[in-house]
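note to self: dont lose this again. the chain is below, predicted strucutre after it. 234 aa total, dont forget to put it in the shared folder this time
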Amino acid sequence: MRPRSLPPPPDPGQAATRALLLEAAGEVFAEVGFRAATVRAICQRAGVNIAAVNYHFGDKERLYVEVLRHSHEKALAQYPMDLGAPARATPAERLRAFVRSLLLRMLANGPMAWHGKLLALEMIEPTRALDTLVQEHFQPMARLLRQILRSLLGAAAGPELERLCGCSIVSQCLFYQHCRSVVARMFPDQRFGPADLERLADHITRFSLAGLRAFAAQATSRRRRHRKRAAPKR
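---
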């Protein structure tokens, strides 16, 4: 009986080409969007043969899906959703970690700066790739945020309020990416360096905690009044 042949080892050159394409495509897609981006421009940016996209991904649409997946996974690896939170973090500390992570993924400068721009474009001008992005990445984030909110809302917790509060918190973070050009014109002193993002994370967390605690206090007060009315009179 013939021994089974082993598959050939992965070609490091091919892996490097694929990685170059993902990074170059991310930059091009973030600059001009999926529809305006061309395979030629992406390959020129990556410094590879124009046939490389077809070889590694099949077509531009599948490349785009992989770029979204690659960028989100890379951003989460650098800025995880529990970023900086201690092992036994309080719900408030977990909320700040979530907010800080989202701000850094959307607004931080450096090699991954195109990630936030690309996500903003995909949300404004959605493609068929958005379904995959929501299922694989946004829904897990939403589940984590709902867990945090449930702890902070206490007696007020419930599906609708958790959804409304979650959308409000995320919207505060996304505003600075979606409206960055407006912010730059209205508030030219606003910067998005590391210290600026820390201050933003602090503000959004404090602002959100005040609202969440108000909801929790109202619900607790209503419950006390209800128990008082329901208690048998002596």
